[in-house]
Amino acid sequence: MRTTTSAPRSAEPMTQAAARILVVDDDSGGRRLTRATLAKAGFRVAEACDGKAALEAMQADLPDLVLMDVSMPVMDGFAACAGLRRLTGGDRVPVIMMTGLDDTASIERAFEVGATDFVTKPINWAVLPHRVRYMLRASAAINDLQQNERRLSNAQRIGEMGDWEWNLRDDRVSASAQAWRLFSHERPLSTASGDAFFATVHPEDRDRWLLAIERVASCAEGFAIELRIVRAGGGVRHVHQQVEVIECSAAGAAVRLAGAVHDITRRKDTEEQIRRLAYYDPLTGLPNRLLFTEQLSRALAHAERHRGRIATMFVDLDNFKRVNDTLGHRAGDQLLREASARLSAVLRAQDSVARGTVDSGSDCSIARLGGDEFIVLLTDVTQAQDAARAARRLVDALDEPFIIEGTEIFCGGSVGVSMYPEDGADVDTLLMNADTAMYRAKARGRGAYQLYDKAMNESALDHLRMETRLRRAIERSEFTLHYQPRIDVVSGRIVGAEALIRWQHPERGLLLPADFIPLVEQAGLVIPVGEWAIETACAQSAKWHKMGLQTVPVAVNLASTHLRERGLPTLVALTLAKHGVPARCLEIEVTESILLADPELAVRIAQELAEMGVQLSIDDFGTGYSSMSYLKRLPLAALKIDRSFVRDLDSNPEDEAIVRAIIALARSLKLRVVAEGVETPGQLVLLQSMRCDEYQGFLNSHAIEPAEFAELLSQRQKHPAPVLV
Predict the structure, then answer these.
(1) 363/351 Cα distance (integer angstroms)
(2) Which residues pair with 175 in a beta bridge?
(3) How far apart, in whole angstroms, are the C-alpha atoms of residue 600 and residue 604?
(4) How do residues 474-526 score in pLDDT, each as one tens digit?
């Protein structure tokens, strides 16, 4: 064993700062990290590599607290904890068990051998010193109570906490003033009958108390018992009573008893608080995953015996992240509390098992798993439609607005449902399938519920394979850019191109963006894919220039998040310089959603790009969010009219009006206008009459490979596209 001491770094109380902690772990690296963390917080730290070494060290000198791993060679943590409790004074040392096991059986076993608390690996190092300080304070409070209890017992069973004597011959009890108070009587009397004095024992404990008295009267042996006393003003006081026989009859029966009573309410409250930390979510007060899975296991066993059905539902808040990021964590916490209260209120009593304390044996109906995820248990479900109706009520409840810090918030939620026995016969399978169904509900547009079916697992597996392949697509050069020409409406010449990404999937062939871009966003790959597109487009522009072709600007589509990357201007400048491409030959296209989050940063980055000569265009204009105050500050070169407005331009007066309005807005802002998705001569004629600047679409050309585009560009330099008038 090795001891390391470090001076306190902060003004901690001396009892805390000088506390000696014994760290028991067979992992030397883990011990070093634990020692360093606690020493930095001002604790004295000793180490032991296994349970046997720890016991030897504690026989010589008891520490103030033990932090002990469960799984170790020679002697595990359970055995070492039990051994500590058998040492003189060892019952007063708090023990925190460290384990990677999160099953209820391990936690219960740790408590059975005398553990005070437990932490799971990986350990949150920032929280560990606070956890240790808390346990030292709690242990000090409990040890104070136990010390008082011992003093009462040693002082002829009569202590300052309260004492009484009971003469069983005439059934008279005499007690100290403190004992009368502890038994919640208004004022002390000289004597009272046994029934009157002990009348305040909680009704649920009374039979146990009377049975103990009957036994001591017959066998004349003392006993210890813990009881609840009903307070005069309501509530409950916990007391510990040590009862002994002080006089027996000639026949050996007890005729006079003496008792010492000790208020242990604080200790009980501390124990309950420790158990609540283990089983309940501190933010919402709901059961946590550990308690929920324990209760679900019992519900499954009951359903199996009685051939019942159970529904398990995953509930996820759809827009929680946006609220948390926009309004802050305090608002996010308030939203979680209000959502949990709303979900709890929606569930009908007959749909779910009643909630109760850990020890009562009652099950829970709703739990918080962490983050913005909740899970619901419905028992005695006769058919899947019952679960569907309950899920619909949960979705409807979350669709109603929340008032968070004075702001009306629409959050919404998605629910996935799995059924026992058809969707799984064990806890893990039911939870996994409910989770899968919930994500399918989100994929359908959120604000919905989805019952699980087996095809979802196949889809989820395919999704996982696609994401894995996608992450390797850049390094394997599976992405490619196709180019769609932009045509001048008046001259018919090619004046630019839009670079559109394609994925040459090894098994599925050429995939269009709609088949994989959502997955790119989910996988967090939008930044590297955008950087690849800028690099590839610039390299291609340089190749065309070397071929002697007319240089035209190439537009690259970037995700809105990319325009909030502070390193984007530097990346663009380095890429242009690397390939010798003028800045005017690169355009950046983004959607209006760049203004949704941190618009000030987006404006600054756009201005930096414009200063170096890179043009910026708003793609799909009219389909998203636009703030005119920010829009006019962006150094824009063009607005691109979304194809949804062009599709029915020559047949729908409303679309024609929208297109005219966009063109008029662009004119007033001195911006070029590009119409997307032009497929018919009629659409082009109307656009010419509206004085639209450029267009692109199948009327002229699909997006084509670089070699085809070079050939098309060469031809159009000599023979522009026909202009319709």
Answers:
(1) 12
(2) 164
(3) 6
(4) 888 899 999 999 999 988 899 999 999 999 988 889 999 988 888 888 778 88
Say if CB 673 and CB 450 are below 8 A apart: no
Residue 365 DSSP SS3: coil
Strand boundaries in 38-135, DSSP class E: 44-48, 65-69, 95-99, 117-120
Yes or no: say if 696 and 678 are a contact pair by the CB < 8 Å rule.
yes
- Categorise residue 307: left if φ over 0, alpha if ψ from -120 to 50, beta otherwise: left
Regarding pTM above 0.70, the answer is no
H, E, C per residue of 113-158: CCCCEEEECCCCCCCHHHHHHHHHHHHHHHHHHHHHHHHHHHCCCC
CA dist., res. 219 & res. 648, Å (int): 99
Rounded CA-CA distance 543/534 in Å is 14
Q: Are 98 and 70 in contact (CB under 8 A)?
A: yes
Mean pLDDT for 103-124 is 83
Q: How many CB atoms lie within 10 A of CB 209?
A: 16
In this structure, the chain runs to a length of: 725
Residue 318 near residue 414, CB atoms below 8 Å: yes
Is beta strand 373-378 parallel, antiparallel or unpaired with respect to 366-370? Answer: antiparallel
Amino acid at 316: D
The least confident of 140-144, 177-181, 328-332 is: 140-144
Tokens matching residue 533: 């597109």
What is the model's pLDDT at position 624? 59
